[in-house]
């Protein structure tokens, strides 16, 4: 891996403005998913190191919250500029440790930078209110930073999930202790290096790298100093963190699992629906919480859709992410690939049919899996109900609008859903009836820094991005000012 700026490849944690090894000297290896080669050996921190980061954030927060919003905004804007200037190196780092195609990695860096830019601007717009009161009182509402924020981020979007949390936290006047996924710490450390260059004060943004996620997570949730926890990851881990945060009654926001349906009605443009479903399902090798997980297609167009979708999936170019010709890279590791393959085998044993793919691509490496399409999937199968974190697309028929809504809602998840239809009445009815926090209509590219990202049911709590995204990082304080009578 060649970087224009080799100093962006860091291997120590970042605490209190210093690059630090673990207290006990332990390290862990970061591997390239494409060939299992070692990229770096990174500091493997534990509970004691995490507590040091928390205390550093607490000290820094006292001064950071007092900085004028305009000053915080200017520092964040400098960070944004540096991320954009180093986009290519950051993308190469991401592809090396995460595996996604380089073109996708470049897009993620742009997406990640957009949150820093957005919240740099929002820092100056954290308005309060004056409530009309009685003659001798003034009722005032102000917003103050919640305090030290703990953020835990996943490996599938190792830069954007950081900035989507750190941006609003820092803009509001909070300080951050971030635990990135052990699979992808290098992207986090590179962002910290650029934050340091931008002038963020020591202790304001801390990175705790480590392979023992439970030890670090439990330290963050148990600490009374940490007043807010934000997490992106699986629903199972999210539930554990929610329960652990109850002892200190922290504010929490959770972006958890998904089981996104793509509902294709007979009135839809079939070619557009196929293109959208391909882009959504196979992005990042299917390792995306909002990607198409179940394709629900009206029975009158089902056969045509399956034929076109199967052909398109079979044409995708799979290869190492560093190869500019690759459209889909490897999965994060062999274990993840084996788990997806097991779900496919189980579905086939229960009556499903593979129309393309359905096998590991061993010639490419241990973590590559062919873009796969399944028909004959039923509601009894695990692959229907469980999020498939890999490049597998079950396609199911439905008869009418009511059945489509029932099938779409037949899950504990409610993050994202997609509708393809040219019937405007139907679009409104179905958008309102399905239980999802985000709905794309004739469009799968629904994410941006300007929109409120988040789900319903067991897909999470709170919203990230947009004008709503800063709300979870502030406390709303009411002040009643008496004795203001006329002289």
Automatic annotation (TrEMBL):
GO cellular component annotations of the record: cytosol
Q: Where is the Aldehyde dehydrogenase domain?
A: 19-479
Q: Which GO terms describe its biological process?
A: gamma-aminobutyric acid catabolic process
Keyword Ribosomal protein appears in the UniProt entry: no
| CDD domains noted in UniProt | ALDH_F5_SSADH_GabD
Which keywords fit this entry according to its UniProt record? Oxidoreductase
Active-site annotation? 255
Top-level lineage group? Bacteria
| Gene Ontology molecular function: any one | succinate-semialdehyde dehydrogenase (NAD+) activity
**Gene3D superfamilies in UniProt:** Aldehyde Dehydrogenase, Chain A, domain 1, Aldehyde Dehydrogenase, Chain A, domain 2
Spell out the family assignment given in the record's similarity comment: Belongs to the aldehyde dehydrogenase family.
Q: Which NCBIfam families match?
A: SSADH
Q: What is this protein called?
A: NAD-dependent succinate-semialdehyde dehydrogenase
Species this protein is from: Pseudohalioglobus sediminis
């Amino acid at each position: 891996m060649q970087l224009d700026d080799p100093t962006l490849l860091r291997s120590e944690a970042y605490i209190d403005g210093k690059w630090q090894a673990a207290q006990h000297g332990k390290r862990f290896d970061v591997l390239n998913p494409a060939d299992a080669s070692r990229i770096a050996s990174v500091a493997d921190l534990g509970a004691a190191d995490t507590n040091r980061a928390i205390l550093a954030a607490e000290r820094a927060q006292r001064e950071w919250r007092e900085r004028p919003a305009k000053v915080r905004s200017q520092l964040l804007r400098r960070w944004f500029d540096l991320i954009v200037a180093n986009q290519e190196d950051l993308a190469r780092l991401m592809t090396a440790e995460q595996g996604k195609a380089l073109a996708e990695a470049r897009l993620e860096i742009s997406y990640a930078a957009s949150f820093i830019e957005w919240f740099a601007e929002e820092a100056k717009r954290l308005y309060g209110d004056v409530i009309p009161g009685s003659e001798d009182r003034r009722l005032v509402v102000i917003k103050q930073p919640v305090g030290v924020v703990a953020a835990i981020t996943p490996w599938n979007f190792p830069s954007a999930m950081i900035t989507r949390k750190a941006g609003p936290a820092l803009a509001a006047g909070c300080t951050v202790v971030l635990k990135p996924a052990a699979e992808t710490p290098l992207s986090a450390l590179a962002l910290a290096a650029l934050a340091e260059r931008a002038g963020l004060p020591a202790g304001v943004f801390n990175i705790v790298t480590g392979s023992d996620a439970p030890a670090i997570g439990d330290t963050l949730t148990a600490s009374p100093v940490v007043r807010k926890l934000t997490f992106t990851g699986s629903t199972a881990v999210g539930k554990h963190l929610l329960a652990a945060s109850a002892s200190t009654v922290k504010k929490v926001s959770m972006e958890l699992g998904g089981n996104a349906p793509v509902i294709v009605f007979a009135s839809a443009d079939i070619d557009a629906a196929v293109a959208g479903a391909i882009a959504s399902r196979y992005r990042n090798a299917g390792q995306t919480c909002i990607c198409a997980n179940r394709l629900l297609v009206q029975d009158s167009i089902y056969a045509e859709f399956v034929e076109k979708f199967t052909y398109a999936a079979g044409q995708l170019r799979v290869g190492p992410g560093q190869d500019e010709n690759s459209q889909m890279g490897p999965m994060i590791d062999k274990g993840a690939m084996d788990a997806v393959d097991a779900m496919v085998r189980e579905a086939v044993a229960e009556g499903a049919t593979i129309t393309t793919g359905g096998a590991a691509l061993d010639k490419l490496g241990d973590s590559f899996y062919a873009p796969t399409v399944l028909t004959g999937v039923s509601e009894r199968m695990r692959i229907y109900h469980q999020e498939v974190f890999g490049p597998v697309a079950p396609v199911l028929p439905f008869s009418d609008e009511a059945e489509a809504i029932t099938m779409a809602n037949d899950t504990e998840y409610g993050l994202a859903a997609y509708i393809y239809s040219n019937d405007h009445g139907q679009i409104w009815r179905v958008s309102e009836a399905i239980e999802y926090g985000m709905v794309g209509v004739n469009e799968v590219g629904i994410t941006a820094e300007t929109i409120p990202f988040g789900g319903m049911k067991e897909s999470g709590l709170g919203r990230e991005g947009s004008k709503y995204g800063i709300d979870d990082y502030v406390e709303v304080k009411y002040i009643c000012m008496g004795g203001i009578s006329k002289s």
